[in-house]
Design a protein that fits this description.
By secondary structure, this protein is an alpha/beta fold. The chain is built from 23 helices and 16 strands. It has a five-stranded parallel sheet with strand order 9-12-15-8-16, sandwiched between helices. A hairpin with a 2-residue loop joins β2 and β3. The longest helix is centred in the first third of the chain and has 17 residues. InterPro entries: ATPase_dyneun-rel_AAA, P-loop_NTPase.
Length: 537
C-alpha cells in the first residue's frame, strides 16, 4: 500500500482508511495504557500497521481533533497527549490481530488461543463451536483429532485457555444468582434482608474438640498447627484448641459454604480455604499466625496487631478462627464510640430500666473472638472501660451494675494502623492502655514470590484472570510503591481489587493506574509512579 493510497482510501462508511486505522490504534492504546497516550507514541507505533509516516499520522491527529475524533491535552508546542477517541468505522483486521479477538462471520476467531492454527480454527467452527463458552465446556475426546495436529494435550490446552476468554458477565451473573439464592426465603424463594438482634444470640461456641473426642489436651489433632509460610515444611504446634462446632454462626465460612456471604473466605481449586500470606514479626522473627495462636491459647490475653491498611490483619485472624471453629466478631470503632456502644445501653422495659447487651458484652458471653478495629481512635472513656477486662479478665459494666466473667473461649484482639504520616488520622495509643497488650507488627509481605503465591489462588478461581507472569510484575510494582513514601501505596487488598478490574475487562496497566488513583492521598500524585509502572508492565 502506498502512502497516498493509505491516506485517501475510504472504508465502507466513508472514513479515510488511514484515519480509521489510526483511531482504532489509539482506542486500543488508551485501553491498554489506562489513560492518556502521548501523541509521539502513537505516531511511532502507527508504522507497525500501515505505511503512514510520523508526520502524516500527526497531521491526521490534528485534523481529527478539529473534527471531534480525538481529544487532546497540549502540554507544550511539541508535547501533547490524546485523552479520548471516537473510533471510525469497524476495527481493521490488522489492529484486531495485534491486540486481540475478532469476529468472523458471526463466529469467534479461536486463533487468539495459543495452540490454535488456521486449520484447527476452521475445524472447531465446522464442529459447531461458535464461542469460547461452548469451547470451554467441550469434551477433550470430542476435540482431540478433529485435525491431524489437534492432539489430546492440545485439546486440553484449548479448553483451559478458552475459559479465560468467556465474557465475565456470565460468571458474575452466576455468582450473583448463587448469593441471591442463599439470601432468599426458603419458603417463598424471595430475597429478603436479615436483621439479627445480638442479644437474641444466646448460643455459645462449641467445646474444645479434645473433650468431645476423648483425646488428651495436648493431642495435636485437637489444636491449630501452624503449617503456612515459613512453617510449611516444619509445622509448629500452637496449643490453640480447635472447637467442635464448625456450624456455630460466628465461625468464618468458606465461600463454598451454604451460608457464605460476600465476606466469606476464598477457596482454592481443592475447595480448601486459602491461607493468608503470613509475614514474620520484624523483631521476634517468628510467623504471625504462630505468635497470635500461641497467645490466644493462653486464654483472655489481650493482643494488639499493628500494620498498614490492607496488609491482611483481619484476614489472618479470620483464618485462625475458621481453622479452630471460633466465633469471629469484628467491630469498627471511631471517635464517637462510647462505652454503651460496646457494652449496651439501658433501655425501658415497661416500668423498669433494664440493660441491653452490646456487641462486646454479648460476644464475651457467647465465647467469641472479638476484634476491635482502629482501637486508638476511641474516646479515652471507652478504652478505659475495658481496663479491668484487660487486667483481670472480667468485665465491669458500671451502668448495668454487672460483673461479667467471660466464656472460657472468649478472646480479645485489637488492630490499628501505625501512627505514621500516611495514617495521620491514627492516634497513638495511651501508654497505660498500650502496656496491657501483647503487641505484634504485621508488615506487608516482603517476598514478591510469596505474595504472588498467596494472591494467585485468591484472584483466579475456576478461570485464570491474571497469569503468574503478569501478577508477578504487578506485585513487583506494588513493592515499589511501598518503598516510596511519596507514591500512593498498593496493599495486598488493593491488588485483589486491581485483579477484579482486570477480570472486568481492563488491561493490567489500566487497572493498576486506576487503583493508584483510588488510594492516592491529597498530597500524592499517582502520575509520579507511572514511569516506573511503564518499565515493569
Amino acid at each position: 500500500m502506498s502512502t497516498d493510497s493509505t491516506t485517501t482510501q475510504t472504508s465502507s462508511n466513508g472514513s479515510p482508511e488511514g484515519q480509521r486505522i489510526l483511531s482504532h490504534l489509539v482506542n486500543r492504546l488508551l485501553r491498554a495504557e489506562g489513560g492518556s497516550v502521548p501523541v509521539e507514541r502513537v505516531t511511532l507505533r502507527v508504522s507497525d500497521f500501515t505505511d503512514l509516516s510520523d508526520q502524516q499520522a500527526a497531521d491526521l491527529i490534528d485534523e481529527g481533533e478539529k473534527s471531534g475524533i480525538y481529544t487532546l491535552t497540549r502540554l507544550s508546542s511539541s508535547n501533547a497527549t490524546i485523552d479520548n477517541v471516537v473510533p471510525q468505522g469497524e476495527e481493521p483486521e490488522v489492529i484486531t490481530a495485534a491486540f486481540g479477538q475478532r469476529q468472523l462471520n458471526g463466529n469467534t476467531d479461536f486463533r487468539i488461543l495459543g495452540v490454535v492454527t488456521d486449520s484447527i480454527n476452521d475445524a472447531l467452527q465446522d464442529a459447531g463451536y461458535t464461542d469460547f463458552r461452548a469451547l470451554s465446556e467441550a469434551d477433550i475426546d470430542d476435540l482431540a483429532h478433529l485435525t491431524s495436529t489437534l492432539t489430546e494435550s492440545r485439546a486440553e490446552a484449548i479448553v483451559a485457555e478458552a475459559k479465560q476468554h468467556i465474557p465475565v458477565g456470565h460468571a458474575l451473573a452466576q455468582r450473583a444468582a448463587s448469593y441471591y439464592a442463599q439470601r432468599s426465603n426458603p419458603a417463598s424463594g424471595v430475597g429478603e434482608a436479615r436483621v439479627t438482634d445480638l442479644t437474641n444470640i444466646t448460643e455459645t461456641v462449641g467445646e474444645p474438640r479434645y473433650l468431645s473426642k476423648g483425646w488428651g489436651a495436648g493431642d495435636e489433632r485437637g489444636m491449630y498447627v501452624s503449617d503456612v509460610g515459613r512453617n510449611t515444611t516444619d509445622p509448629v504446634l500452637t496449643g490453640l484448641h480447635i472447637l467442635d462446632n464448625p456450624d456455630y454462626p460466628g465461625v468464618p465460612k468458606a465461600e463454598t459454604h451454604p451460608n457464605a456471604s460476600y465476606d466469606a473466605l476464598p477457596v482454592d481449586e481443592d475447595g480448601e480455604v486459602i491461607p493468608p500470606a503470613v509475614p514474620l514479626d520484624p523483631r521476634l522473627q517468628l510467623p504471625l499466625d504462630e505468635l497470635i495462636a500461641k497467645k490466644l491459647s493462653r486464654g483472655l490475653v489481650p493482643i494488639r496487631v499493628v500494620g498498614p491498611r490492607g496488609s491482611g490483619k483481619n484476614y489472618l485472624i479470620k483464618y485462625l478462627c475458621h481453622k479452630t471453629n471460633r466465633g469471629y466478631q469484628s467491630i469498627d470503632v471511631d471517635r464517637a464510640t462510647e462505652p454503651e456502644d460496646l457494652f449496651g445501653p439501658l433501655v425501658p422495659d415497661g416500668d423498669v430500666i433494664v440493660p441491653r447487651n452490646g456487641a462486646v458484652k454479648q460476644g464475651l458471653i457467647n465465647g467469641d473472638t472479638i476484634v476491635i478495629n482502629e482501637f486508638p481512635v476511641m474516646q479515652a472513656g471507652a478504652a478505659i472501660a475495658l481496663h479491668r477486662l484487660l487486667n483481670e479478665g472480667t468485665l465491669l459494666v458500671k451502668s448495668h451494675g454487672e460483673l461479667v466473667e467471660p466464656h472460657p473461649s472468649a478472646r480479645l484482639i485489637i488492630t490499628m494502623n501505625p501512627p505514621t504520616r500516611e495514617y495521620r488520622d491514627s492516634e497513638p495509643m495511651n501508654s497505660a492502655t498500650r502496656g496491657r497488650f501483647r503487641s505484634f507488627e504485621q508488615p506487608y509481605i516482603q517476598d514478591i514470590a510469596e505474595e504472588v503465591e498467596t494472591l494467585y489462588p485468591q484472584v483466579n478461581g475456576d478461570t485464570e484472570v491474571v497469569d503468574r507472569t503478569t501478577l508477578k510484575r504487578i506485585v513487583r510494582f506494588a513493592h515499589k510503591t511501598r518503598e516510596n513514601e511519596n507514591w500512593p501505596t498498593l496493599s495486598t487488598r488493593n491488588l485483589t481489587i486491581l485483579c477484579e478490574h482486570i477480570e472486568d475487562g481492563a488491561s493490567p496497566k489500566a487497572a493498576t493506574k486506576n487503583e493508584l488513583w483510588a488510594v492516592a492521598e491529597p498530597n500524592q500524585y499517582p502520575e509520579d509512579a507511572h514511569e516506573t509502572l511503564n518499565d515493569i508492565l
